[in-house]
Design brief:
The complex is a heterodimer of chains A (562) and B (337). With 562 residues, chain A is mostly helical. Chain A folds into two domains: 1-46 and 335-526, MetI-like (MetI-like fold, Orthogonal Bundle); 67-331, MetI-like (MetI-like fold, Orthogonal Bundle), CATH 1.10.3720.10. In chain A, 74% of the residues lie in helices and 1% in strands. A two-stranded parallel sheet of chain A has the order 1-2. In chain A, helix 8 crosses helix 9 (197-226) and helix 15 (339-372) packs antiparallel against helix 16 (376-385). The longest helix of chain A is centred in the middle third of the chain and has 34 residues, at 339-372. With 337 residues, chain B is α/β, with parallel strands linked by helices. Chain B has two domains: 24-122 and 252-305, Periplasmic binding protein-like II (D-Maltodextrin-Binding Protein, domain 2, 3-Layer(aba) Sandwich), CATH 3.40.190; 123-250 and 312-332, D-Maltodextrin-Binding Protein, domain 2 (3-Layer(aba) Sandwich). Chain B contains 15 helices and nine strands. In chain B, strands 1, 2, 3, 4, 5, 6, 7, 8 and 9 form a nine-stranded mixed β-sheet that branches. Chain B is globular. Classes of the chains: A mainly alpha (562), B alpha/beta (337). At the A-B interface, helix 11, helix 15, helix 17, helix 18 and helix 22 of A face helix 1, helix 2, strand 2, helix 3 and helix 8 of B.
């Protein structure tokens, strides 16, 4: 994920190459972008043809509340993720306490838990019939909900907590990378000038790390804005809820597309702000990584505090949900451990694998084309190809159906006219539609990673290779790709995990009799049978852990290698 | 070279075979969870030898069907309420089926006049009252839900849920928009908590002491009674058939329709016929505790023990016609907040 933060201080190197040979790269990049942008364009197109103008009604009734709730949710999740992410990143980087090395990695684990799963788990734990309230009633002798007050998990506060718990790793990851990159001498200077550790943190460390934190936060906010599963389950009325309402209840797909377009605008503004804030990173870019970080040696009490800072988000965001799922999974093991489970696991692995491979290939092509042609046009193509990340999955699914089914039917007409043969639906309604949807949705992740990693490779490498007679393609394969191996692996794995977790688009697009782990979990959990699908839910979580370990390794080693 | 190879492999891998429309199959788009359909569909396959293929989703199936056009593989669409199926008719996606078996098995008010959809089961939108805190007969109509004496004592799910939208639509149909809005405002003022959860959660809320009155579909109550973990909660409430003395209880249907583009038309019709016949109707009645549409089939013993359903005869498409009005009304009275 950290690679999404393309470093802003890339050298403005000359367009690297010759006009002729690299033209093919430009053309293929443009072609790919055109295809990948189709679903987003389809949705925007729908927005021009609403069945009726939805805005007067929305403005007069629910829109203010949707906006306020969305705002509250975003502010709350931002605050929580900053609190969890920054505090843990800071103590892990700067303090010496028992378990520090373990938490370096463990803080990332909640990232493997899909938001809808954590929401189901906490509801089953915390609602009236759950173990927590049951115990309380037993201890205090209460007999009904009227006898005591207990916080309602299905609420704005609950949704904020759930999203905060699974999304803070974005902030942690990027903040920690930024803290590690900072020169320890800056810190020493500040201390020697009389600032306390806290004051140094606020006045020196945070401002320098700000661009990285902004990237993490913008990812958090995008995920929050697009979340449907949690807010729907908790009856929190955000813009996404309004979108679905307009679509499903008022039957106004065009109106819904308009809301989606509005949300897209939000995201574009967010991303622009984030980029803008990073423009000033250059002046801070002087690095000095030779000195090792001197970690604080702390008193017992202080160490306990550090431990608590790390333990709280880890336990709430990962350990407790994972144990609860494991507990259910064991209880219902005989029922869940069957051929359906294996088939669904295979489906998930296959789809996510295909999506990871596809996004990687496309990501490399786009990022490398940008390296060859560092023009505004190429930059625009990159941004355009990433827009899928900013759209709610279900809306994107409709955007996927439109061009695919359109193409299928066009081809079918053609073939019928020419040869009297019907080709039927080739692409839509097949697993291709799913892989395509995942690719469109998660391309931003892999293209961004590859792009930023490429920028760290000095252009003189390219020049050397080219002057030795290699084509751009050969240079990529023989020079860049080997150097990028780690990045490529991480990018592919992150897409893999994200695809495993993806739910709304999968539901709408999948073929007959075809379930993934995520859709299978949803079928049961949405019908209040979470326990029956705990095993597949646990597998989704476990599959997410591997890439996390790899990511974490690559960050830690960045310090030692530098 | 290696790149190209990998690209080809990725593309080839991503196109798994789609369920073919060979003989002996029928393809279903379902708004209801696939595992809930299993008992009936398995019985159908056993009797006819026709294999069933299902896609379940709660959103987007209508868009998918429409965009797939004449090449859509779907033969039959199954929905859990009238408005979703009415939407398909509006978009001209369902075929008119003129079939004697179906017209014989299903009463005229529970199917489309031209056979563009058929009701398969009926469910009543019931009221549930606390056995401990309310007397029998304290509450007998939907209208009384707006009575200020129930302030802070009623639980329901979101007003936007299709089941509640249909109930509000029926109030609009019977009383006109202005009066219905007054009623909805009154009901909102009586809510014990912000609308949330599903119908079962409302019955549970009564047993937990959160509220004394709940609104919910009949089969949820039946299913809770049949579930070891939920029976205790269900036994704390009594079921009330609202408006039994006047126009009748508001009902909704789970419905099926044959798509216009159905590639396996015959098999699709066979499935529709089968669903309306005794065997399937009994499964629906016994396993799902729903009311059979086929007058020849009795409700299950448990369901019958609640009393007789006197259903509102308002045509269902009229309810669907008021749905958009109802949704806007829910927004205007800020029901879900």
């Amino acid at each position: 994920m950290e690679q999404l933060a393309e470093s802003a201080d890339h050298p403005s190197y000359q367009p690297l190459l010759a006009k002729r040979t690299s033209r093919r790269w430009l053309v293929s990049a443009a072609l790919i972008t055109a295809i990948v942008a189709l679903p987003v364009i389809s949705v925007l197109f729908l927005a021009f043809f609403p069945d009726e103008n939805i805005w007067p009604h929305l403005m007069a009734t629910t829109l203010p509340r949707y906006l306020i709730t969305t705002g509250k949710l975003m502010v709350g999740v931002a605050a929580l993720t900053l609190l969890f992410g920054l505090s843990s990143a800071w103590v892990i980087t700067m303090c010496q306490f028992p378990g520090r090395r373990f938490f370096e990695l463990a803080m990332l684990l909640p990232f493997a838990v899909p938001a809808y799963v954590i929401a189901y788990v906490y509801t089953s734990l915390l609602d009236y019939a759950g173990p927590v309230q049951q115990t309380l009633r037993g201890v205090f002798g209460w007999s009904s909900a009227q006898d005591y007050w207990f916080p309602e998990i299905r609420s704005l506060g609950g949704a904020t907590l759930m999203l905060g718990l699974v999304l803070y790793p974005y902030v942690y990851l990027l903040a920690r990378a930024a803290f590690l990159e900072q020169s320890p001498s800056l810190f020493s200077v500040s201390r020697s000038l009389g600032h306390s550790a806290v004051s140094t943190f606020v006045r020196v460390v945070l401002p320098i790390a700000r661009p990285a934190i902004a990237v993490g936060l913008s990812l958090v906010l995008m995920e929050t804005l697009n979340d449907f599963g949690t807010v729907d389950f908790f009856a929190v009325q955000t813009l996404t809820a309004g979108l679905f309402d307009t679509w499903m209840n008022l039957g106004n797909l065009g109106g819904a597309a308009q809301i989606a377009a509005t949300m897209l605008t939000f995201v574009v503004i967010l991303v622009t702000l984030e980029r803008y804030s990073r423009r000033r990173q250059k002046q801070y870019a002087a690095r000095d990584n030779r000195q090792p970080i001197q970690r604080f040696v702390l008193s017992g009490k202080q160490q306990a505090l550090c431990l608590l800072v790390c333990l709280l988000p880890f336990v709430l965001g990962f350990l407790l949900p994972a144990l609860t799922l494991a507990n259910y999974a064991i209880e219902y093991f005989d029922e869940s451990w069957n051929s359906t489970f294996f088939r669904n696991t295979l489906n998930s692995l296959f789809l996510s694998g295909a999506a990871a491979l596809t996004t990687l290939l496309i990501g490399v092509t786009l990022a490398y084309s940008r390296r060859l042609h560092n023009t505004r046009g190429m930059q625009l193509l990159m941004r355009l190809s990433s827009l899928g990340y900013a759209m709610p999955g279900a809306v994107l699914a409709v955007g996927v159906i439109i061009p695919l089914a359109g193409f299928d039917n066009w081809l079918d007409d053609l073939m019928r006219g020419a040869f009297g043969v019907s080709t039927g639906l080739l692409l839509s309604g097949s697993t291709f539609a799913l892989v395509f949807a995942y690719t469109v949705r998660f391309l931003a992740v892999s293209a961004g990673s590859v792009e930023s990693a490429l920028q760290k490779i000095t252009p003189s490498m390219d020049m050397a290779s080219r002057s030795l007679g290699h084509t751009p393609g050969k240079t990529l394969v023989r020079v860049h790709l080997p150097m990028l191996r780690g990045t490529l692996l991480t990018a592919a794995l992150v897409v893999f995990v994200d695809s495993m977790k993806e739910l709304p688009a999968t539901l709408i697009l999948r073929p007959f009799n075809f379930e993934t782990l995520a859709t299978y979990v949803y079928q049961f959990a949405s019908d209040e049978h979470l326990a029956h699908s705990a095993l597949p839910a646990l597998v989704i979580v476990l599959a997410g852990i591997l890439p996390i370990i790899l990511m974490s390794r690559s960050i830690s080693s960045s310090r030692t290698l530098a | 070279m290696r790149l190209k190879l990998a690209a080809t492999a990725a593309l080839a891998l991503s196109v798994l075979p789609v369920a073919a429309s060979a003989d002996g199959e029928v393809n279903i788009y379902s708004y209801r969870q696939a595992y809930l359909l299993e008992p009936v569909l398995e019985a159908f396959t056993e009797e006819t030898g026709i294999k069933t293929n299902v896609v379940f989703a709660k959103n987007g199936l209508a868009e998918r069907l429409q965009r797939e056009g004449r090449n859509s593989p779907a033969d039959v669409v199954m929905t859990v309420d009238i408005s979703r199926i009415d939407e398909l008719v509006d978009r001209d996606l369902t075929a008119a089926v003129d079939n004697d078996v179906l017209t014989q098995n299903i009463p005229a008010n529970l199917r489309h006049p031209e056979g563009k959809w058929f009701g398969i089961t009926v469910r009543g939108r019931m009221l549930y009252t606390s056995i401990d805190r309310l007397e029998e007969g304290d509450l007998t109509t939907y209208e009384e839900l707006a009575d200020p004496k129930w302030k802070g004592r009623i639980c329901t799910r979101s007003g936007k849920h299709p089941y509640n939208v249909a109930l509000i639509s029926s109030m609009i149909a019977h009383h006109g928009e202005a009066e219905a809005e007054q009623w909805l405002t009154g009901l909102k003022n009586n809510l014990a908590r912000k609308p949330q959860g599903g119908d079962r959660d409302q019955i549970k809320a009564i047993s937990e002491g959160v509220c004394d009155i709940a609104i919910g579909n009949s089969y949820y109550y039946g299913k809770m009674l049949a579930d070891d973990n939920q029976r205790a909660a269900a036994e704390k409430v009594r079921i009330v058939f609202p408006n039994a003395e006047d126009r009748g209880t508001h009902i909704n249907i789970s419905g099926v329709a044959l798509t216009k583009s159905a590639p396996n038309k015959e098999n699709g019709i066979k499935l529709l016929e089968y669903l309306s016949q005794e065997h399937a109707q009994v499964i629906y009645a016994e396993v799902n505790t729903e009311y059979p549409v086929n007058p020849e089939v009795e409700p299950s013993g448990v369901v019958a023990s609640w009393g007789e359903l006197h259903a509102d005869t308002l045509p269902l498409h009229e309810i669907a016609a008021h749905a958009a009005q109802a949704v806007r009304m829910v927004d205007r009275v800020d029901f879900d907040n």
